[in-house]
Amino acid sequence: MLMVLLCVGAWTSAVTPTNSTLAKFEQWMARHGRIYKDNLEKAKRYGIFLETLRFIEDFNSKAANHSYKVGLNQFSDLTTEEFVPRYTGFRATSRSSNSSAATTFKYSMTQVPDSLNWVEKGVVGSIKNQGGCASKTI
């Protein structure tokens, strides 16, 4: 009887994170208006979402090493391979024969600060979703 209780307890603790992450995924879908064409697509996106969630939890658990934390956003169900061409305008091209030639950096700075806070200098603002702003180079 004790063995059965231990097995049930282990199974329950193993299932609970899945249920809570599934609930988190469902809440995330509702918040960002995600509707998938079928259960296969939903399962694929849930897998990507879980990978993103694991990355976030791992990164934030080491927050002492960073000056910021990361979190879920409207892109949390996309892979990098999907995100980059869709939202950055980056198109991978083959290198030309001249592109491997080394170029020299024309500035010499002997005193470089250890850090630079562009927010304090008023150069950058808060993070915003610019959507498809069409600032792609063609």
From TrEMBL:
Asked if the keyword Signal belongs to this entry, the reply reads yes
- Signal peptide per UniProt: 1-17
Entry keyword set: Signal
Record's keyword annotation contains Signal: yes
The organism encoding this protein is: Eucalyptus grandis (Flooded gum)
Annotated coiled-coil positions are none
Q: What is this protein called?
A: Cathepsin propeptide inhibitor domain-containing protein
- SUPFAM superfamilies with a match to the protein in the record: Cysteine proteinases (SSF54001)
> Which superkingdom?
Eukaryota
In this chain the Cathepsin propeptide inhibitor domain maps to 25-83
InterPro entries, alphabetized: Papain-like_cys_pep_sf, Prot_inhib_I29
The record's section on Pfam families has:
Inhibitor_I29
